[in-house]
Specification:
By secondary structure, the protein is mainly alpha-helical. The chain has one domain. The protein is built from 10 helices and 5 strands, in the order ααααββαβααβααβα. The longest helix is centred in the N-terminal third of the chain and has 33 residues. This is DUF6533 domain-containing protein.
Length: 302
């Protein structure tokens, strides 16, 4: 009886976190609804699908866990592909940087594909029917491949982030100008990486060190766990998934806003941003003829 109560409490915690994440997603959607209608159009508005109770049949549970492994791999490869396109836009003339980033991107994607194949072929899904009267599919163990599914994205996205930051640092060091769209890509990519890196690292630590139920609190959408019990319904809204949705939506809206010809700021948006170092000036010594002028200029720039 005590085990049932613990599972029920853990399932409730998962659902509460999912409800909080869904609330954040809806709130952000409401805040940006006018921008989506103006920038993107009525026909392409974001559609939300609220997941329901998962059937506790063996076929549904097996399909659910296998689908999560596959969808997690596909979504990770797509997101990293978008980041790689941003690296290409920033480093278009630097073939070494592009080759370096492409090597890690394709290497990471191949690694994830191999891990999913290993997951399908090498491990089975064991159904524990001791609590078959309760709805849903609940994981109780983690698969052997779980560490690789987080380590590979951590390495790839760290490399892509380094390429973006190195380009921005070069602009700043040389005091050169860059198109505003490139500065926007750099800023959004940096923000996305900081949040995504935190979730990837936390996911790895949770799966390696924490109890299995914590995985559903943080990364429901990649919850490909194999020894499962049919207990609580798990909604498909986790902090990591919702953060990716919100960040991706704002990145797209920012690009649309930058290129909107009806915007009054359109011409200024197309201008360049200057990444300049503070100017260095040699001031005259006290008592010289230019000392008074230098003091007035210093007062003006302070």
């Amino acid at each position: 009886m005590e085990g049932i109560e613990i599972l029920a409490e853990q399932g409730t915690a998962v659902n509460l976190v999912a409800a909080a994440c869904l609330t954040c997603l809806l709130y952000d959607h409401v805040l940006t609804l006018d921008q989506e209608i103006k920038r993107i159009g009525r026909d392409t508005l974001i559609q939300l699908h609220i997941g329901g109770t998962v059937s506790n049949s063996r076929r549904i549970c097996v399909f659910y866990l296998r689908w999560l492994a596959l969808s997690g791999m596909i979504s990770t490869c797509i997101v990293q592909g978008i980041l790689m396109l941003r690296v290409w836009a920033i480093h278009k003339q630097n073939k070494v940087a592009l080759a370096f980033g492409s090597f890690f991107y394709f290497g990471g994607s191949i690694t994830l594909i191999g891990l999913v194949i290993q997951d399908y072929v090498g491990e089975g899904v064991v159904i524990n029917r001791a609590l078959g009267s309760l709805p849903g599919c609940y994981p109780t163990t983690v698969p052997a491949i779980i560490a690789g599914t987080w380590i590979a994205p951590l390495i790839v996205e760290s490399v892509l982030f380094f390429l973006v930051i190195s380009r921005a640092f070069t602009w700043w060091r040389n005091g050169s100008s860059a198109p505003r769209i490139l500065s926007l890509l750099t800023r959004d990519s940096t923000l996305y990486f900081a949040i995504a890196f935190a979730f990837l690292l936390a996911s790895y630590l949770v799966f390696q060190l924490g109890p299995p139920f914590l995985s559903s609190l943080l990364v429901t959408y990649v919850n490909q766990l194999h020894d499962i019990q049919p207990v609580s319904c798990i909604l498909s809204y986790s902090p990591s998934a919702v953060a990716g949705c919100i960040l991706g939506s704002h990145m797209l809206l920012n690009l649309r806003e930058l290129s909107d010809p009806d915007d009054e700021q359109f011409e200024s948006n197309r201008s360049n941003v200057v990444f300049a170092l503070p100017s260095r000036r040699i001031w005259p010594m006290p008592g010289s003829d230019d000392h008074a002028t230098a003091r007035s200029e210093a007062r003006y720039f302070s």
